[in-house]
């Protein structure tokens, strides 16, 4: 009985991972991709837990859902920050925080 | 090659790979089967060496040399990123202004910071007993420090994170792993052999050299990830490029600038 | 269910490579590489799974308990952390490319070289 339950959970988690991976690839904007990658990391961690791999799940949780998306967001911010950009106009990647903190100084 | 041609080539290759991979999968032992010869042997070896987390035993005892290789990849990747992201002569550094943080976020962040740090250190320390170890715990410790960036601002993070000790810490972690291995040679055994007494099963000092190597990896991973994230944060927050395009004061080049452009 | 995990691993790999091939932004391409990389973890853990087995940790279960394969878990575990630092190296290369050539579009870069 618990065997079939585990099978169902593993199957659901597998489909979730496949869907998240597809969504991560199809999101062409790196900022949104970083968020979907974070969700992919979360669902992978769930799958690994169901597969009786808590060590790997912990590792995936820390790396996949935090460190990798953070580095992607920081890279996007660095790349889009330079003037004379001409790149995609959907700016503001990771800038929200800083923009909010910069008080009283109107952007020139 | 045109995008269309490239896509066509990919689809043709992918179809072949998919077909062959499916055939190979049908020939694999079914998912969840009972035949795991390597796993059974690894578990027996782990129990023989009094390491209750068989994964830690595989990583730091049975495959300790491979883990040295993995650790070296990590070390060189961090080194490479530091070299690539260093401040060049034509770049200037400006200090970000203090940021206003909403009080609930500040309180929650400052509350979670010690908790997350303690969890990370616990995960490193109990690597040979319970799920966890140097690799996972190191990442948790490193990310926990960055809660300070969320709870306060970049300058607060820079104050608790002078980069120099972390750079040294990373090198010390790598060196400690090699020295532990060489100590086994001096003790008259093979490189990275588990020469220490195995201790009592399921206690903190069990597993011989496993806790030592585990701690070395934990130190290296924690310091390495801190250094890595620091380089990216520096580039994204502090360092400005040379081709200023007419805005050569200390002003921020935030989203507002781009709106005008 | 006997082959579903393997097929899902294959799908993740192919979809990641598809993203790499069609990507117009190197940051997006690095993300796709991370996706393709995660397929190996799924495949490894699927190979090592054993029905009715628990995690290979013996702190509170007897050593003759039926457990899943620890070897593949050890392989996946180290690769996740090391893979993240390699991703960081690639992102650092993207930042450098942006500095030197002013673009992150791989097609524009190949035009540049001629």
From TrEMBL, chain C:
Keyword Transmembrane helix: yes
Localisation per UniProt entry: Cell membrane
UniProt keyword list: Cell membrane, Membrane, Transmembrane, Transmembrane helix
Subcellular location, principal: membrane
Pfam families, sorted: Oxidored_q2
Bilayer topology: Multi-pass membrane protein
InterPro entries per the UniProt record, alphabetical: CPA3_antiporter_subunitC, NUOK/Mnh_C1-like
Gene Ontology annotations for the cellular component aspect, listed alphabetically: plasma membrane
Transmembrane intervals: 6-23, 30-51, 71-95
Glycoprotein listed as a keyword: no
PANTHER family found in the cross-reference section: ANTIPORTER SUBUNIT MNHC2-RELATED
Protein family (similarity comment): Belongs to the CPA3 antiporters (TC 2.A.63) subunit C family.
Protein name in UniProt: Dehydrogenase
Organism: Streptomyces sparsogenes DSM 40356
Source lineage: Bacteria, Bacillati, Actinomycetota, Actinomycetes, Kitasatosporales
């Amino acid at each position: 009985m618990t065997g079939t339950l585990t099978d169902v959970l593993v199957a659901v988690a597998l489909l979730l991972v496949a869907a998240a991976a597809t969504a991560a690839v199809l999101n062409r904007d790196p900022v949104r991709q970083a968020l979907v990658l974070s969700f992919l990391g979360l669902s992978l961690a769930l799958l690994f837990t169901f597969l009786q791999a808590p060590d790997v799940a912990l590792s995936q949780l820390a790396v996949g859902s935090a460190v990798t998306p953070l580095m992607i967001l920081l890279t996007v911010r660095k790349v889009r920050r330079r003037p004379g950009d001409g790149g995609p106009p959907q700016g503001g990647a990771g800038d929200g925080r800083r923009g909010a903190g910069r008080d009283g100084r109107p952007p020139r | 090659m045109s995008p269309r041609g490239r896509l066509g080539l990919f689809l043709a290759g992918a179809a072949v790979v998919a077909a062959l991979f499916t055939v190979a999968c049908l020939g694999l032992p079914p998912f969840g089967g009972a035949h795991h010869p390597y796993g059974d042997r690894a578990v027996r070896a782990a129990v023989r060496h009094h390491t209750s987390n068989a994964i830690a035993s595989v990583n730091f005892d049975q495959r300790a040399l491979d883990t040295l290789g993995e650790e070296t990849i990590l070390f060189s990747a961090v080194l490479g990123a530091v070299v690539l992201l260093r401040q060049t002569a034509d770049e200037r550094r400006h200090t970000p202004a203090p940021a206003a943080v909403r009080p609930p976020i500040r309180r929650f962040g400052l509350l979670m910071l010690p908790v997350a740090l303690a969890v990370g250190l616990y995960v490193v320390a109990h690597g040979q007993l319970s799920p966890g170890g140097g690799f996972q715990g190191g990442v948790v410790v490193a990310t926990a420090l960055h809660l300070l960036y969320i709870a306060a601002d970049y300058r607060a993070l820079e104050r608790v994170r002078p980069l120099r000790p972390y750079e040294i810490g990373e090198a010390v972690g790598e060196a400690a792993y090699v020295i532990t291995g060489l100590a086994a040679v001096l003790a008259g055994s093979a490189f990275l052999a588990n020469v220490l007494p195995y201790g009592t099963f399921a206690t903190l000092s069990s597993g011989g050299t496993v806790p030592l190597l585990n701690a070395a990896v934990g130190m290296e991973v924690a310091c390495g990830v801190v250094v890595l994230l620091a380089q990216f944060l520096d580039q994204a927050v502090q360092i400005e490029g040379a081709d200023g395009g007419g805005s050569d004061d200390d002003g921020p080049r935030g989203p507002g600038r781009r709106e005008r452009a | 269910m006997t082959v579903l995990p393997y097929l899902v691993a294959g799908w993740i790999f192919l979809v990641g490579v598809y993203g790499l091939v069609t990507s117009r932004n190197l940051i997006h391409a690095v993300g796709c590489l991370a996706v393709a990389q995660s397929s190996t973890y799924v495949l490894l853990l699927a190979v090592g799974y054993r029905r009715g087995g628990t995690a290979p940790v013996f702190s509170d279960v007897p050593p003759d308990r039926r457990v899943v394969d620890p070897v593949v878990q050890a392989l996946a575990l180290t690769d996740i952390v090391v893979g993240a630092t390699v991703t960081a190296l690639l992102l650092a290369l993207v930042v450098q490319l942006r500095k030197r050539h002013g673009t992150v579009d791989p097609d524009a870069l190949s035009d540049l070289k001629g």
